Amino acid sequence: MGSAFPVPESPAALAAALARTGYLADDGLATAGYLAIRLGRPVFLEGDAGVGKTSFATALAEATGATPIRLQCYEGLSAAQALYDWDFPRQLLHLQAVRAAGQDADPTALEAELYDRRFLLARPLLAALTTSPCVLLVDEIDRADDEFEAYLLEVLADAAVTVPELGRIVAEHPPVTVLTSNRTREVHDALKRRCLYHWLDHPDLDREIAIVRSRLPEVSARLAEQVAAATARMRTLELLKPPGVAEAIDWAAALDTLGATELTAELASATLGAVLKYREDTERVRAAAILDPGTDP
Amino acid sequence: MTGADGTAVLVGFARAAREAGVPAEAQRTQAMLAAADALGPADPAALYWAGRLTLCAEPDDLPRYDAAFARYFGAAAAPRRARTRTGPPRRPSVGFGADEAGTDAEPTATLTVRVSASAAETLRHRDVAALTDTERAEVRRLIALLAPATAPRPSRRYRPAPRGELDPAGTVREMLRAGGEPVRLARRTRRVRSRRLVLLIDVSGSMAPYSDALLRFAHAAVRRRPTRTEVFTVGTRLTRVTPALRARDPDVALTHAGRAIPDWRGGTRLGETLRAFLDRWGQRGTARQAVVVLASDGWERGDPALLGEQLARLSRLAYRVVWVNPHAGRVGYQPLTGGMVAALPHLDAFVAGHSLAALTELVGVIGDG
């Protein structure tokens, strides 16, 4: 079932493959991805919202031709939603069908039949263990409860799950795992210890321009540069929510939709909602006169 | 980077990093060796990333790691400019599992309480700033017995229950057991869990007589709900002391916390430290829907307008904001300091915290609603 995860030659080769999908990774992130594949360790990504934590996993899957599987964490996430569940209605249906057919089935055989793999609903974690090659994205692990974290640790450490009625299901080729966290609470050290830890920073200006251009090829070079520069300056203003790369891309897309090829003060002011999400931030940016194109570096 | 020499160099580096405060213990060191091996021949940049990805555990480790790397391999080897992070190291680099006095201290404590019950009653209302050493020791013991905790609220998880809403999955499972007949209807109800409790304690000079009692109160809270309580000290800097306060023994915990706090008895820049808290922790989720207790006298040296602005932000995030001001316990106190005036409109409760009785009252306020 499936094949082993294709191992790139070097971090640089992985970065190039990621770039072809439109994701521009820096040295550290490419090295983290490369080591994750080579060593079979999960990558633990932290960083401000909108710096590209989640899209890294999707890009990694696309670049390597692996299946992406995503598990979104939230408070109250339980094993039945993350790992597997029995399809009880179908089991019942099967039971009724056997009865209707009037077969005098051997009870032991019937019972074994009921707990067959086809009645097992694979949730993301089990799906990731049985699909290969695949990239498993455990998104916003800090939102799940601590109990779930311990459970995840167990699954990741063994790359195996024990279903009492079926036995142990071992991954032939363990998935390449990417965990992301927004640091709303501290994730337990035992989990982090098994991971490669990477802090994602906002990209520098050149990289950000390149990211905007590669994501939105239709945007003019001038506009991409101006948007990246304005976003970078906004980040220096101590805003409540400094804009991330995601916001810069949204903003450029919004401006492009309006037919802009250049950032003007009126256009910027009209589309500010794409990049700033707090009234206080909008006021601060307006006061700092960052949107005046005359202040280009 | 395979040979024995290479390994020795890397293990030596891991040790240097550990001394610098990076959590580079054995398992992480092994991971670094494997990573360096996978990345191939020693290239300073690859080595830098091999170590950084495996040895570090949080953003605060990164500047320490960078410094250790530059020291060990020479400044030229570091491929990256040092990060400019102004925050203090928030974790003490010492371990904190020491609970030597923990096991046999507790029975003594309860015994003493029983013996001196009437004395305790008179102590309850005394200002902790004006106690003798013996009285202070007694009050400390009594504070350790407080168990501040937020009220439980329904969580998103369910548990089976004799009554409550119908549990479809459970009922079907029961039916399966009975050969398809709905013999018993399974029911479920929501589990309960408590809100997060966040304590921000001012450790500046003007609060010095009360910081010890308040930190002990925080320790009692952390001991009660270790995973649902966060404690920070504020002053001129923001310091997270939760890990230090997890030690069982209050004295050990306070020693560790003291070591972690760089701005004991300094000035107060509440507005700025509160902003640091909200930027780095609060807005991401620590303060969301939490009960936030801010213990300070409101002697703000910075701009009171900034404090008001940040408190407004905090009150929008938090479930309740409680301000504890030890000076409020004095007869004829009026909240007239600049910081207090700016803060008052954004508070849900304003309480004193100067005596044991006042702290007990605070337990009640925290547990409300």
From TrEMBL, chain A:
Transmembrane segments annotated in the record for this chain: none
Gene Ontology molecular functions: ATP binding; ATP hydrolysis activity
SMART domains, per database record: AAA
All copies of domain AAA+ ATPase, residue ranges: 39-215
Matching Pfam families: AAA_5
CDD domains in alphabetical order: AAA (cd00009)
Domain of life: Bacteria
SUPFAM superfamilies: P-loop containing nucleoside triphosphate hydrolases
Protein name per the record: MoxR-like ATPase
Organism per entry: Actinocatenispora comari
Lineage, broadest ranks: Bacteria, Bacillati, Actinomycetota, Actinomycetes, Micromonosporales
From TrEMBL, chain B:
Origin superkingdom: Bacteria
Segments forming a coiled coil: none
The protein's name: VWA domain-containing protein
InterPro entries membership: UCP010256, Uncharacterised_CoxE, vWFA_dom_sf
Organism field: Actinocatenispora comari
UniProt region (Disordered), positions on chain: 79-103
